[in-house]
Design a protein that fits this description.
Rossmann fold; 4-stranded parallel beta sheet; mainly alpha; 4 strands
Length: 259
Protein backbone atom coordinates (compact mmCIF):
# COMPACT_ATOMS: atom_id res chain seq x y z
CA UNK A 1 0.00 0.00 0.00
CA UNK A 2 1.17 3.52 -0.78
CA UNK A 3 1.72 6.17 1.90
CA UNK A 4 -1.18 8.61 2.12
CA UNK A 5 -1.94 11.69 4.13
CA UNK A 6 -4.52 14.41 3.53
CA UNK A 7 -4.56 17.78 5.27
CA UNK A 8 -8.05 19.04 4.44
CA UNK A 9 -7.66 22.62 5.78
CA UNK A 10 -4.38 23.05 3.90
CA UNK A 11 -5.88 21.68 0.68
CA UNK A 12 -8.89 23.98 1.11
CA UNK A 13 -6.72 27.06 1.51
CA UNK A 14 -4.46 26.05 -1.36
CA UNK A 15 -7.45 25.65 -3.67
CA UNK A 16 -8.79 29.06 -2.65
CA UNK A 17 -5.40 30.59 -3.51
CA UNK A 18 -5.27 28.72 -6.84
CA UNK A 19 -8.75 29.89 -7.86
CA UNK A 20 -7.88 33.49 -6.99
CA UNK A 21 -4.56 33.38 -8.84
CA UNK A 22 -6.00 31.64 -11.90
CA UNK A 23 -8.88 34.07 -12.33
CA UNK A 24 -6.56 37.04 -11.76
CA UNK A 25 -4.12 35.71 -14.34
CA UNK A 26 -7.01 35.31 -16.81
CA UNK A 27 -8.25 38.83 -15.98
CA UNK A 28 -11.61 37.50 -14.89
CA UNK A 29 -13.30 38.17 -11.57
CA UNK A 30 -16.61 36.32 -11.90
CA UNK A 31 -17.55 32.65 -11.76
CA UNK A 32 -20.68 30.79 -12.86
CA UNK A 33 -21.42 27.23 -11.76
CA UNK A 34 -24.31 24.82 -11.60
CA UNK A 35 -25.69 24.14 -8.12
CA UNK A 36 -27.17 20.67 -7.74
CA UNK A 37 -27.47 20.56 -3.96
CA UNK A 38 -24.83 17.85 -3.65
CA UNK A 39 -21.40 17.96 -2.06
CA UNK A 40 -19.35 18.68 -5.17
CA UNK A 41 -21.12 21.82 -6.37
CA UNK A 42 -21.51 22.95 -2.75
CA UNK A 43 -17.79 22.69 -2.00
CA UNK A 44 -16.81 24.22 -5.36
CA UNK A 45 -19.15 27.16 -4.78
CA UNK A 46 -17.79 27.69 -1.26
CA UNK A 47 -14.19 27.67 -2.51
CA UNK A 48 -15.03 30.19 -5.22
CA UNK A 49 -16.88 32.41 -2.74
CA UNK A 50 -13.84 32.44 -0.46
CA UNK A 51 -11.48 33.15 -3.35
CA UNK A 52 -13.47 35.84 -5.17
CA UNK A 53 -16.08 37.03 -2.70
CA UNK A 54 -19.68 35.76 -2.78
CA UNK A 55 -20.74 38.81 -4.81
CA UNK A 56 -18.70 37.43 -7.73
CA UNK A 57 -20.16 33.91 -7.70
CA UNK A 58 -23.32 33.07 -9.66
CA UNK A 59 -25.03 29.81 -8.81
CA UNK A 60 -27.43 28.43 -11.40
CA UNK A 61 -30.02 25.82 -10.47
CA UNK A 62 -30.95 23.72 -13.50
CA UNK A 63 -33.86 21.34 -12.85
CA UNK A 64 -35.01 19.15 -15.72
CA UNK A 65 -38.73 19.60 -15.10
CA UNK A 66 -39.39 18.78 -11.43
CA UNK A 67 -36.45 18.36 -9.04
CA UNK A 68 -37.48 17.00 -5.66
CA UNK A 69 -34.41 18.29 -3.79
CA UNK A 70 -34.08 21.74 -5.35
CA UNK A 71 -34.56 23.23 -1.88
CA UNK A 72 -31.07 21.89 -1.10
CA UNK A 73 -29.64 23.91 -3.99
CA UNK A 74 -31.33 27.06 -2.69
CA UNK A 75 -29.93 26.42 0.80
CA UNK A 76 -26.40 26.33 -0.61
CA UNK A 77 -26.79 29.67 -2.36
CA UNK A 78 -28.38 31.26 0.71
CA UNK A 79 -25.76 29.86 3.09
CA UNK A 80 -22.89 31.18 0.96
CA UNK A 81 -24.57 34.47 0.07
CA UNK A 82 -23.93 34.00 -3.65
CA UNK A 83 -26.16 35.13 -6.51
CA UNK A 84 -28.68 32.54 -7.68
CA UNK A 85 -31.09 31.87 -10.53
CA UNK A 86 -33.26 28.92 -11.49
CA UNK A 87 -33.32 28.02 -15.19
CA UNK A 88 -35.50 25.00 -15.91
CA UNK A 89 -34.20 22.95 -18.86
CA UNK A 90 -37.28 20.71 -18.96
CA UNK A 91 -38.92 22.41 -21.96
CA UNK A 92 -35.65 22.33 -23.91
CA UNK A 93 -35.23 18.63 -23.20
CA UNK A 94 -38.81 17.92 -24.26
CA UNK A 95 -38.44 19.94 -27.46
CA UNK A 96 -35.34 17.97 -28.40
CA UNK A 97 -37.09 14.63 -27.80
CA UNK A 98 -40.00 15.75 -29.96
CA UNK A 99 -37.63 16.56 -32.80
CA UNK A 100 -35.74 13.29 -32.42
CA UNK A 101 -38.92 11.18 -32.49
CA UNK A 102 -40.73 13.17 -35.20
CA UNK A 103 -41.51 11.25 -38.43
CA UNK A 104 -39.05 11.65 -41.27
CA UNK A 105 -40.35 14.27 -43.68
CA UNK A 106 -40.82 13.21 -47.29
CA UNK A 107 -38.62 16.09 -48.44
CA UNK A 108 -35.63 14.70 -46.55
CA UNK A 109 -32.92 13.28 -48.82
CA UNK A 110 -31.94 9.83 -47.57
CA UNK A 111 -33.83 10.51 -44.35
CA UNK A 112 -33.39 8.01 -41.55
CA UNK A 113 -35.08 7.10 -38.30
CA UNK A 114 -33.18 7.94 -35.11
CA UNK A 115 -33.52 5.17 -32.51
CA UNK A 116 -34.98 6.10 -29.13
CA UNK A 117 -32.04 5.43 -26.81
CA UNK A 118 -32.35 5.57 -23.01
CA UNK A 119 -28.68 6.34 -22.33
CA UNK A 120 -28.61 9.09 -24.95
CA UNK A 121 -31.66 10.66 -23.33
CA UNK A 122 -30.12 10.49 -19.84
CA UNK A 123 -27.08 12.40 -21.11
CA UNK A 124 -29.21 15.15 -22.67
CA UNK A 125 -29.72 16.77 -19.25
CA UNK A 126 -26.02 17.32 -18.44
CA UNK A 127 -25.38 18.56 -21.98
CA UNK A 128 -28.26 21.03 -21.90
CA UNK A 129 -27.05 22.22 -18.51
CA UNK A 130 -23.58 22.79 -19.93
CA UNK A 131 -25.00 24.76 -22.87
CA UNK A 132 -27.10 26.87 -20.50
CA UNK A 133 -24.19 27.50 -18.15
CA UNK A 134 -21.96 28.45 -21.08
CA UNK A 135 -24.56 30.97 -22.21
CA UNK A 136 -24.81 32.52 -18.75
CA UNK A 137 -21.04 32.58 -18.21
CA UNK A 138 -20.35 34.29 -21.53
CA UNK A 139 -23.20 36.76 -21.02
CA UNK A 140 -21.90 37.62 -17.54
CA UNK A 141 -18.25 37.85 -18.59
CA UNK A 142 -17.51 34.98 -16.21
CA UNK A 143 -15.60 31.70 -16.16
CA UNK A 144 -17.50 28.41 -15.88
CA UNK A 145 -16.39 26.44 -12.83
CA UNK A 146 -16.45 22.65 -13.09
CA UNK A 147 -17.64 20.53 -10.17
CA UNK A 148 -16.64 16.98 -11.11
CA UNK A 149 -14.25 15.04 -8.88
CA UNK A 150 -11.43 12.59 -9.63
CA UNK A 151 -13.38 9.51 -8.52
CA UNK A 152 -16.17 10.19 -11.02
CA UNK A 153 -13.70 10.92 -13.81
CA UNK A 154 -11.73 7.73 -13.09
CA UNK A 155 -14.72 5.42 -13.64
CA UNK A 156 -16.36 7.60 -16.31
CA UNK A 157 -19.32 8.60 -14.14
CA UNK A 158 -19.66 11.86 -16.03
CA UNK A 159 -21.05 13.07 -19.35
CA UNK A 160 -18.78 13.97 -22.22
CA UNK A 161 -19.52 17.54 -23.38
CA UNK A 162 -21.73 17.85 -20.31
CA UNK A 163 -20.41 18.14 -16.75
CA UNK A 164 -16.87 17.53 -18.05
CA UNK A 165 -16.94 20.88 -19.89
CA UNK A 166 -15.71 23.90 -17.92
CA UNK A 167 -13.07 26.65 -17.85
CA UNK A 168 -11.42 25.38 -14.66
CA UNK A 169 -12.14 22.72 -12.06
CA UNK A 170 -11.02 23.05 -8.43
CA UNK A 171 -12.17 19.52 -7.54
CA UNK A 172 -10.70 17.57 -10.45
CA UNK A 173 -7.67 16.35 -8.47
CA UNK A 174 -9.67 15.33 -5.38
CA UNK A 175 -11.39 12.02 -4.81
CA UNK A 176 -15.00 11.98 -3.66
CA UNK A 177 -13.83 11.13 -0.15
CA UNK A 178 -11.43 14.10 -0.16
CA UNK A 179 -14.13 16.51 -1.37
CA UNK A 180 -16.19 15.56 1.69
CA UNK A 181 -13.19 16.09 3.98
CA UNK A 182 -12.59 19.56 2.52
CA UNK A 183 -16.31 20.33 2.85
CA UNK A 184 -16.19 19.46 6.55
CA UNK A 185 -13.71 22.30 7.08
CA UNK A 186 -16.05 24.94 5.60
CA UNK A 187 -18.47 26.12 8.32
CA UNK A 188 -20.50 28.18 5.84
CA UNK A 189 -21.83 24.97 4.29
CA UNK A 190 -24.80 23.00 5.66
CA UNK A 191 -23.05 19.84 6.83
CA UNK A 192 -25.98 17.58 5.97
CA UNK A 193 -25.53 18.54 2.30
CA UNK A 194 -21.77 17.91 2.42
CA UNK A 195 -22.56 14.41 3.75
CA UNK A 196 -25.59 13.89 1.48
CA UNK A 197 -25.63 10.55 -0.38
CA UNK A 198 -24.74 11.28 -4.03
CA UNK A 199 -27.45 10.38 -6.57
CA UNK A 200 -28.02 11.14 -10.25
CA UNK A 201 -31.51 12.48 -9.54
CA UNK A 202 -32.95 10.28 -12.29
CA UNK A 203 -32.91 6.60 -11.41
CA UNK A 204 -33.83 6.76 -7.74
CA UNK A 205 -30.54 4.98 -7.01
CA UNK A 206 -27.42 6.29 -5.32
CA UNK A 207 -24.22 6.71 -7.34
CA UNK A 208 -22.67 3.75 -5.54
CA UNK A 209 -25.68 1.53 -6.25
CA UNK A 210 -25.46 2.39 -9.94
CA UNK A 211 -21.70 1.91 -10.09
CA UNK A 212 -21.72 -1.33 -8.11
CA UNK A 213 -18.74 -0.15 -6.05
CA UNK A 214 -18.22 2.46 -3.34
CA UNK A 215 -16.47 5.81 -3.52
CA UNK A 216 -14.22 4.64 -0.68
CA UNK A 217 -13.08 1.72 -2.84
CA UNK A 218 -12.28 4.12 -5.69
CA UNK A 219 -10.47 6.40 -3.24
CA UNK A 220 -8.38 3.53 -1.89
CA UNK A 221 -7.60 2.35 -5.44
CA UNK A 222 -6.32 5.81 -6.36
CA UNK A 223 -4.53 6.76 -3.15
CA UNK A 224 -3.43 3.44 -1.67
CA UNK A 225 -2.94 1.44 -4.86
CA UNK A 226 -5.76 -1.01 -4.16
CA UNK A 227 -9.41 -0.95 -3.17
CA UNK A 228 -8.76 -3.98 -1.01
CA UNK A 229 -10.23 -6.33 -3.60
CA UNK A 230 -8.43 -7.61 -6.69
CA UNK A 231 -11.77 -8.01 -8.46
CA UNK A 232 -12.80 -4.42 -7.72
CA UNK A 233 -9.35 -3.15 -8.75
CA UNK A 234 -9.73 -4.87 -12.09
CA UNK A 235 -13.22 -3.41 -12.52
CA UNK A 236 -12.02 0.14 -11.77
CA UNK A 237 -9.02 -0.23 -14.06
CA UNK A 238 -11.24 -1.40 -16.92
CA UNK A 239 -13.65 1.49 -16.39
CA UNK A 240 -10.76 3.95 -16.27
CA UNK A 241 -9.34 2.66 -19.55
CA UNK A 242 -12.69 2.54 -21.32
CA UNK A 243 -13.59 6.09 -20.29
CA UNK A 244 -10.25 7.81 -20.81
CA UNK A 245 -11.69 9.50 -23.92
CA UNK A 246 -13.81 11.65 -21.59
CA UNK A 247 -10.69 13.07 -19.94
CA UNK A 248 -8.63 14.06 -22.98
CA UNK A 249 -9.13 16.38 -25.90
CA UNK A 250 -10.49 14.80 -29.11
CA UNK A 251 -7.64 13.46 -31.27
CA UNK A 252 -6.64 15.54 -34.28
CA UNK A 253 -6.03 13.25 -37.23
CA UNK A 254 -3.15 15.11 -38.81
CA UNK A 255 -2.55 14.15 -42.47
CA UNK A 256 0.87 15.86 -42.37
CA UNK A 257 2.29 13.38 -39.86
CA UNK A 258 3.66 10.00 -40.90
CA UNK A 259 1.74 6.98 -39.68
Amino acid sequence: MADYSFNAPAIRDRLVDLISAHLKNCRCSRVVLGISGGKDSSVAAALCARALGPENVYGIMLPDGHQIDIADSRRICESLGIHSRTLNIGSMHQALKEQITAPVEETEINGFVIPVDHESDINVGPRLRMTTLRYVAQAMGAFLCGTGNLSEATVGYCTKDGDTSCDFNPLGALTSVEVVEVGKTIPELPMDLVLKTPTDGLSGMSDEEKLGITYLQIHNYLRLGSSGSAEVDQFIASKEKANMHKRVKPPILNPFLLI
